[in-house]
Design goal:
Order of helices and strands: HHEEEEEEHHEEEEEEHEEEEEEHH
Number of domains: 2
CATH class of the largest domain: Mainly Beta
Oligomer: single chain
Helix content: 10-25%
Shape: globular
CATH superfamily of the largest domain: Lipoprotein localisation LolA/LolB/LppX
Strand order of the largest sheet: 7-8-9-10-11-1-2-3-4-5-6-12
Largest sheet: 12 strands, mixed
Number of helices: 7
Mean pLDDT: 79
């Protein structure tokens, strides 16, 4: 029992440290409540109107305080997963999320709190609180950088998606604009979003696979905007036997050229990128015994993740076949090995696009390096890596 608990704690440390924070950082609050302009009519051909609404959401949604219950449902080959959570957000940077218990996932209740400077992730089943810096706050303090990214993403969305405002609907006691985003390039997912008519806030999102089947839906069962909230709500109270584990801050997203300079191993990059996608940047693992690079591609709305892990296999030959499967979120995953590296591609795109990327990964002779002999700690790391991927 003790060993299994230690394994679970270490795996969670890796997952949390390598993942991006989903909670936005600290900013100066708006002097007034952000609101959307009232539209005289809804024109289904009004692409620019729909784009303007999306841009308002991207820039201002974090300044909307709210208290709500959210449901997320994901369909994948192994079945269906569902999650219900209570979320409280006090603009601009205080957020508390409580994941509710269910008969399908007993004992999985957890709480995540952010104050713009730190994140606390409480796992009651392990009696552990993971505390880490909210590195997103450092990045978002640079307003010019965020505005640049927002502008870039909007340009990519306009270039890669047909965006249209198709109507209005009532949802969670609110009136909402319904916006459809259809990919211009085949093999990519589509999306529908419901934007509140008063505030720049998404009430519902439906995602569809490239074949048109729905892959996920997230919506608010009920929501209250700008409730009276005290800061006490955002303090984490735990039993006295709960242990706090402090995790180091992960790196910010780096440009590819900087990532390659910082890494102590070569990072082969696919020569083929799916039409419309650009390399957004990448991250390096903060654990020296777990060397890894995570490169992220985006078309403005959808992302593809490319993982490079060196020195985990001594065999330098190329694997004859590429392992393909779906993860618990329904995304396609491709894995293969070559020259002592293990590569992984993850994306909610058609498998043919990921396969084309995998087949064009080339090693530059001048930067190829022989993998170092594995230490015992690296063998343990490899075990945790495989444990993480097959259970994610």
């Amino acid at each position: 029992m003790v060993f299994r608990k230690v394994v679970a704690v270490l795996v969670l440390c890796l997952v949390i440290a390598l993942s991006e924070s989903a909670i936005k950082g600290n900013k100066t609050a708006f002097a007034r409540t952000p609101r959307l302009p009232e539209l005289d009519s809804v024109d289904s051909t009004g692409s620019q109107t729909a784009i303007n609404l999306i841009e308002q959401v991207a820039r201002n949604s974090e300044y909307v305080s709210f208290k709500a219950t959210q449901t997320v449902i994901i369909w994948h080959p192994e079945g269906t997963s569902a999650c219900i959570s209570n979320i409280v957000h006090k603009a601009p940077n205080l957020t508390r999320t409580e994941y509710l218990l269910s008969s399908a996932a007993p004992g999985e209740f957890r709480t995540v709190i952010s104050d713009g400077e730190s994140i606390w992730h409480y796992e009651p089943s392990l009696k552990v609180v993971f505390q880490m810096p909210d590195v997103a706050s450092d990045f978002h303090d640079n307003a010019d950088a965020e505005e640049f990214n927002t502008a870039r993403d909007m340009d990519l969305i306009k270039a890669n998606y047909e965006v249209s405002l198709i109507g209005t609907e009532s949802l969670a006691g609110r009136q909402a604009y319904v916006i459809r985003l259809e990919p211009r390039h085949p093999g990519n997912p589509s999306r529908r979003i419901w934007v509140d008519r008063e505030y720049p806030f998404i009430l519902k999102t439906e995602k569809y696979r490239p074949d048109g089947a729905m892959s996920s839906v997230s919506f608010y069962n009920h929501i209250e905007f700008f409730p009276a909230l005290t800061d006490d709500i955002f303090r984490l109270d735990t039993p006295p036997d709960v242990v706090t584990v402090e995790l180091p801050a992960s790196d910010n997203l780096m440009p590819l050229d900087e990532l390659e300079k910082e890494a102590d191993f070569a990072i082969p990059v696919p020569e083929f990128l799916p039409p419309g996608y650009v390399i957004e940047g990448g991250f390096l693992s903060i654990y020296r015994t777990f060397p890894a690079a995570h490169i992220r591609l985006t078309d403005g709305l959808n992302t593809i993740s490319y993982f490079v892990l060196p020195r985990i296999e001594k065999d330098s030959r190329r694997q004859d076949t590429i392992l393909s499967f779906s993860d618990s979120s329904g995304a396609r995953v491709l894995r293969w090995k070559e020259r002592g590296y293990e590569f992984t591609l993850v994306g909610e795109v058609d498998e043919s696009l990921l396969t084309a990327m995998a087949q064009t990964v080339r090693f530059a002779p001048q930067v190829s390096r022989e993998p170092q002999p594995e230490s015992f700690s690296q063998y343990v790391t490899k075990f945790f890596y495989q444990f993480f991927w097959f259970d994610r």
